[in-house]
Write a structure and sequence with these properties.
With 506 residues, this protein is mainly alpha-helical. It contains 19 helices and seven strands. The strands form three sheets. The protein has a three-stranded antiparallel β-sheet with strand order 3-4-5. The chain has a two-stranded antiparallel ribbon with strand order 1-2. Helix 2 packs across helix 4 and helix 7 crosses helix 8. The radius of gyration is 27 Å and the shape is elongated. The chain starts with a helix and ends with a helix. The C terminus is likely disordered.
Length: 506
């Protein structure tokens, strides 16, 4: 029995060392190194973002190809928001990020040429967005007229994919499609009562309309069309009564009256501030200043944008599919896209601490995976959305003509997160050392129900091997950690020197 026990203890020690190094200590060292990257203070794309792009690219390519081939998107329910929207949104994020990196390489700002390794993934992401099966959910909403009736969000994604694909491949094959879809969307926006369109019936999100207008502008630059008058006309959807009480673009509105459904929110404001500078620079600056005034906060050692305005006195703890988790007022989506919004608006004093928080909370694994963004994504339908969104935001550059403002500091919560990486890692190493010492020396521990514990160890390890194949990694890790604790031993109670043992007493 002793040799079996020692075998389990040795395996448990090796498991704890492996988990400590791979999932805790190395990620902690990576976070520490990335926090010292001087480029994140000046608004430049950090080198590790390029490595993240290279790591993500083959995975995204394989996933997108498999998803298109499966045709599974055609059968998804319109209620499955993450399953229907996120695969397309993530693909557009990937295309936008790749386009930005390619432009930086062309301008001599990067040493790595994305076109040398990302060509197949670009095609896969583009084909996914344009795939008819991936339009299944909007076809359920709008019927066969889904490309010419309302449907602002989906049509924006298609035009954005067409634009990025052209810039990355210089292929003119899809220019007629781009021309047709842009003309139809311009016509619909002009014909709408207040310059707004719905994403889905009775659901109008002005930030999506504004982003669609920005997509039209980018497409028109390729098509060689003068759209100054259209851009000037289209601001009507974001003026006067179309704004909330703070003077900002509301989260939702009524498409017929143009009036807001409630106030603006952080997830929408960050999104607006990403596109507004290339449309209406002066108005964009006012919106960003109002965003800072009403939504920027420092709380619990973290800084960033709130999901709900400070004056609302509500929403400190909240969750929905757009906002993500809201903790102590801080919105995950508001802050993640706030990185890109701050960079585009030249507010490096905001982008620096936000990027630091993204780094600290991303949990970077040695294989390049960002564990927490991967965890918050839809593991089946859109596993790479979180990492693609981070890449998109990190690759934004200041809009032309804007002055920049530097500053900011590493938020205290980042140092707290470093403790989360290092302290458990060191404790696991200490536990492993204790196991090996108990093997090499005469153990002072007793193991109750030892046979049962060893059988349980075999069951748990076997389950972890099976789960590694069919269940997400986090389940496997929990099982391995549990296995590494077996068999449980307890220190023997010491006898008092004056207490006779059983044999002498008898």
């Amino acid at each position: 029995m002793l040799k079996y026990r020692n075998f389990c203890l040795a395996c448990g020690g090796l498991i704890q060392i492996s988990i400590a190094i791979y999932f805790l200590l190395l990620p902690g060292c990576t976070v520490s190194w990335r926090l010292m990257d001087v480029s994140i203070r000046s608004g430049k794309t950090p080198r590790w973002a390029v490595r993240l792009h290279r790591s993500l690219t083959p995975q995204y390519d394989a996933w997108a190809r498999q998803r298109i081939k499966s045709g599974a998107a055609a059968d998804l329910s319109i209620l499955d928001i993450s399953g229907t929207e996120w695969p397309l949104f993530g693909s557009v994020f990937y295309l936008w990020a790749t386009q930005a990196l390619q432009e930086q390489y062309t301008q001599g700002q990067l040493d790595v040429d994305p076109s040398r390794y990302a060509g197949e993934a670009v095609e896969s992401a583009y084909e996914l967005v344009m795939d008819p099966n991936h339009a299944g959910w909007v076809r359920q909403h709008w019927g066969d007229d889904y490309l010419i009736e309302e449907n602002a969000f989906y049509r924006m994604l298609r035009i954005s994919a067409l634009v990025s694909h052209y810039h990355l491949t210089q292929s003119k094959d899809d220019l007629p499609t781009m021309q047709t879809e842009v003309d139809e969307l311009v016509k619909d926006i002009d014909a709408s009562p207040h310059g707004l369109l719905e994403d889905y019936p009775y659901e109008c999100y002005p930030a999506d309309v504004l982003t669609a207008i920005a997509a039209i502008r980018r497409a028109n630059r390729i098509l060689g069309k003068d759209d100054k008058e259209f851009i000037q006309r289209s601001i009507r959807g974001f003026q006067g009564d179309r704004l909330d009480d703070y003077g900002m673009v509301p989260y939702a509105a009524d498409v017929n009256s143009g009036f807001p459904y409630g106030p603006s929110r952080g997830c929408g404001n960050s999104y607006v501030c990403l596109s507004a500078p290339e449309l209406w620079p002066e108005q964009a600056k006012k919106w960003y200043d109002l965003y800072e005034q009403h939504f920027w906060q420092s709380k619990w050692g973290a800084v960033g944008f709130r999901e709900f305005a400070k004056a609302e006195k509500t929403g400190d703890w909240y969750f929905d599919v757009d906002a993500g988790p809201v903790i102590a007022g801080h919105g995950f989506a508001a802050d993640a896209f706030g990185v890109g919004a701050a960079l585009i608006n030249g507010r490096f004093d905001h982008s620096f601490p936000l990027i630091c928080e993204v780094i600290a909370f991303s949990w970077p694994l040695p294989d390049g995976t960002l564990a927490i963004p991967r965890f918050l994504s839809n593991s089946v339908e859109a596993p790479y959305l979180g990492e693609a969104a981070i890449l998109y935001n990190l690759t934004r550059s200041p809009a032309p003509g804007l002055s920049s403002k530097t500053g900011g500091h590493i938020p205290p919560i980042c140092y707290a997160m470093l403790a989360v990486y290092f302290l458990p890692g060191l404790l696991l190493l200490a536990s492993a050392v204790r196991k090996f010492r108990s093997i090499s020396s005469k153990s002072a521990l007793t193991y109750p129900l030892e046979k049962l514990q060893l059988v349980l160890w075999v069951v748990v390890v076997t389950s972890s091997i099976i789960s590694a194949i069919v269940i997400p990694l986090r389940v496997t890790l929990v099982l391995l950690l549990f296995a590494s604790m077996l068999p449980l031993g307890f220190r023997r109670k010491k006898k008092r020197e004056d207490e006779p043992d059983a044999q002498s007493a008898s």
